Amino acid sequence: MSESNLISPSASPLKVEIAVIGSGPGGAITACLLAEAGRDVLLIEEGEYLPLESCEPFSVVEMTQKYRNGGLTAAFGQPKVQYVEGRCVGGGSEINSGLYHRTPPNILAQWSQEFEVESLTEADLIPHFEACEQAVNVCYLPGKAPTASLKLQEGATRLNWQSLEVPRWFRYQELDETAIPKGTRQSMTETFIPRALKAGCKLLANTWVKNINQNHNNWSLTGYYQVNKSPKQLIEIQAETIFVCCGAIQTPALLRRSGIKNNIGNALRMHPTVKIIAQFDQDINTLDMGVPVHQVKEFSPKFSFGCSISSPPYLSVGMTDHPEYTEEVQKNWQKMAIYYAMITGEGYGTVRNIPFYRDPLVRYQLTSQDLKDLSEALQKLAQLLFEADAKILYPSISNSFTLTNSQDLAKIPEQLPIKQTNLMTVHVFSSCPMGENLQKCAVNSFGKVHGFNNLYIADASLLCTAPGVNPQGSIMAIARRNVLNFLRN
Q1: Which residues are known to be catalytic?
Q2: How distant is the alpha carbon of residue 234 from its chain centre?
Q3: Percentage of the chain surpassing pLDDT 70?
Q4: What DSSP state is assigned to residue 166?
Q5: Is the pLDDT of residue 2 over 70?
Q6: What is the pTM of this model?
Q7: Beta strand spans in 265-333 (E)
Q8: pLDDT at position 1 over 50
Q9: 243, 437, 363, 76: which is closest to 251 by C-alpha?
Q10: 276 touches 394 (CB < 8 A)
């Protein structure tokens, strides 16, 4: 990384041609391709710059360093949904599991039709998928998958349900055929951000942009620079063009603080997710297990299953729903893993600012059908885990039942209880949908904010609805398509 391109704020307003606010997958790709095209680019990030190796992946330290609010953020509703956001250079790519999907063609067709998005067929996106896959080294596991992951595949095979290994953006080390392969997540700080800096992009970390204002043909950005607990320093930046890439929560919050509100922050979508901790008779978990790679897509797009990070800290957090069993994690964590059922869902949410608070208020309303779908998904996931020889299942429903055999599936109510069900998600999107349908869309087909010049969005906000798969592949391909369109025009 070119240290000379890591800047701190100056007293007078910084002047740049293009400011990119947010350095996750959308922002990093946008800044990289603009800089490589010879443009004068400043990449601004609220969090600090931390290399991947600054902490153990999926550790408590990582949650403290790289997550917003240590990973404790919630969308309010009945029930509420915990969600996570990255807050560091590289954004969500630094903390996510690295599982990669292309946007399903039927979803692209739906977006093109309902939201009137131009040039969004599978054929349009294939060159962008391929370029991004090469840049972040999307590949399959070159060897043995973790046992907890194979349990998911085993249960699916016995039930004759469709399961698959999902590729990841990873670079693997030399192989020992008998061990689970070791590798490095090809996050933005490993890929597009070093490329951007090499091409002359400047990076300003630790900087929160409070608002943006348009003056004639220029934009002014005001905000604060702050390292750790040092005093906040007011910062001003002037730019000809802005790309807002702060993610599906912070992008609408910034735009709304700046008085830009048309179809902004009104249509937040997510993949509501319910979990089960499964305990087996044999060891299925190790401290270096990493990310399980199998998913079950038999019931997709309605819902799908996977296996989560299952390190002891994550197991302990998950077991707070069953406080009388917390000692089981200390005694038997090697025999336990966390599995999830994720629905596409019908519900949607809003992002609104509250006076005197920096973080916005996020609300999300699940429909009764969502609660029925979550219940059905939980039952099917439990059925699969018993097929894979699980001995006891702990669902993420507070102070509720455990399941010890397939007859116990009848304990799961037809609709999950609103007050006890604990839902979470790592996938949020759709708060500023793209397209030419002016009733629904915040930006045009290529990310330009309707009614404004030289103002663009390039992140998960643009996805028109929940894609039903891990969204980073979609975010990267659409960001690449849009920035190349910007450069052509």
Answers
A1: 427
A2: 30
A3: 98
A4: P
A5: no
A6: 0.95
A7: 269-270, 273-279, 294-296, 303-307
A8: no
A9: 243
A10: yes
